[in-house]
Amino acid sequence: MTEKEADVTETQRDDGAGTASRDERAAWWRAVLGEYPTGVSLLAVQEDADVHGMVVGTFTAVSQDPPLVGVFVDNASTTFPRLVEAGGFAISVLGTSHEQLSREVVAKVPGRFERVSLVPGSSGHPHLADAVAWFDVVIERIEPLGDHSLVVAKVTDFDVGSAGSDLPLLFRRAGYGSFAAPSRPYDMRAFMERLGLVAQASGELQSVADELGMPLTVNTQIGDSVVTVGIFAPAGEPADQTKVGRSFPFAAPIAPVFAAWASAEQQHAWTEACRHLLGRVDRVQIQKQLDGVRTRGYGVVARRTAGSPFDSLFAGSATRAALAQTWEEILALGSHLDEDPALLWRRVSGVQVPVLEDDGDVVLALYASALPVLPDAAALDTIVERLRGAARELTRSRAVAG
After folding, report:
1. Which residues contact 328 (CB under 8 A, 6 or more apart)?
2. DSSP state, 371?
3. In this predicted model, what pLDDT tens digit does every residue of 4-36 receive, in sequence order?
4. Dihedral sign of CA atoms 382, 384, 390, 392 in order
5. 349 vs 91, which has greater pLDDT?
């Protein structure tokens, strides 16, 4: 028991009526619980032409097999009986852009659902198109617990939203907010180890940039991030070392050389990360991309227009919307790369060659970018072979160091 709770308890003993004490204790209860941030979700049902919804801060996962979720609903809610009568509802996890909607739902402002985009789920109940995530559920069980009821529901469908809300909306200390998401954190120990490997081979890597006359970037995968650990510019050109340490999501179709020789679990994570950015994933196209990388032994980057959104990712912390725009562009540009392997050299502006460990895992990727328009396939082969030579040198250096 805290000192504050002890004070309230003592006051309650001295107060004959106990009303003031109970009010104080209730206020303290809310204050203490208010220290714990909760997510905010919208529960909604469709009744004929009308949408009925309520906001809760107690949505939680219950079970994966079978898929069950739970919410605690205030028994005094006038919307709760509509959810029960419908036998199910849709859950929209709200994002930071939904604060006004949340306030309007709580206050029952007229027209509150007319100002947002709602999408009917398989049950017909609506979820927000730009929800952080949404679930279509059927009520399995309702258990009264004090002044609330626990509603356990079976999930019949679920997905992420259209990426309009990049961070979940939180409620804390009677106010709305969000957490400050770190910019794709990664294991610094692994980063420093791979940075050291690049430093050991810096002479060879600089020679590659000089001989090819094009920038060379060295990337590595650490967890769910792709991190830059080396930048080399051709002789006479500045190398922007501020890019070292920058990262972006390890999500299809970016950095396929790390996914192509990874475990099935890691490939699945890479593929699904694309869904989190775009709300969808083209498995056929992504599998075609991986097959092409494994067949060739290297990855390729499609030629894109000047001022590509991808180039701006290194300018600073990119928003989810900017990332999604970039991934959309790369998906569109890369969809035809492997259609005719004989003409691949016409379409590429970058080449990614893996640096393999003895066990076959990819530890680094050498990325030659800003390729000029190549005259023929032999020119592409020359670039690839020079990068492969450098990759073998890094593998050898790593083995010696180990």
Report:
1. 278
2. P
3. 333 333 333 344 445 567 777 777 777 787 777
4. negative
5. 91
